[in-house]
Amino acid sequence: MNVHATPRPAIADRRFTLATDLDGTFLGGTDAERDQLYRWIEENRDSVGLIFVTGRDPEFIMEMCRDRHLPWPEYVVGDVGTTIAEVTADGHVTPIPALEEDIADRWKDSGDVVRTTLDGHPGLTLQPTPFRYRVSYDLDTASFDDSAKHRVEEMGLDWLISDNKYFDVLPKGVSKGPSIRRLVEHLGIPEARVLCAGDTLNDLSMLVCGLPAVAVGNSEPDLVARLDGHDTYRAKAHGAAGILEAIAALDLHDTPKG
Fold first, then answer.
1. Rg of the chain in Å (alpha carbons)
2. Which residues contact 63 (CB under 8 A, 6 or more apart)?
3. Is 200 helix (H, G, I), strand (E, B) or coil?
4. How many CB atoms neighbour CB 218 within 10 A?
């Protein structure tokens, strides 16, 4: 399988690069709206780059691309910013060591300590997927005890609650925003040619990191409230349609009409 079947210009040389969250954003909207965005990307690969910036792990992302016939990204910022990787022509996600070294140093193999410290904590259920540089929990807000936040901070790590369903423990200072900025700089992409797109609180750091950004129309209220005072485009349309709305409004690339 060759997921990048045709030769393309270097991503830094393209007119526009979309750096998008998946759930609720790239995967949001109606079937017709998603189809319009995906077809537009595939028809403009010479001038449009694609990066997925998601809380999902790389294996899940690649399975989703295969199973749902999504446009394949060229790069992935996964695991809530703790994975920064290239997608090779055969569909594998290959971490970029120069960009992940700092993440590993900040994490300091803290997984076992985090799991032990938060074992049995009210409102947190450990997710079964093993991650390299984070620990993730399903969150029950009704029974959650806020002291988990302080316990994570005492370990010198960061916590993140998103969509009122997930509690992530991350290396200090690592999230989607710093990681997408690091990747954009590494690739030499002019910042004005990038659009970051998201819909939940785990996208906040990406939407306020200084790159052009859009919160799609179905964004969670807590995210919208936190964006007050920031120069982030607020789309009216949901999901995929909101992405195209922002590309047109910010004049980043020609978009489909109608």
1. 18
2. none
3. coil
4. 17
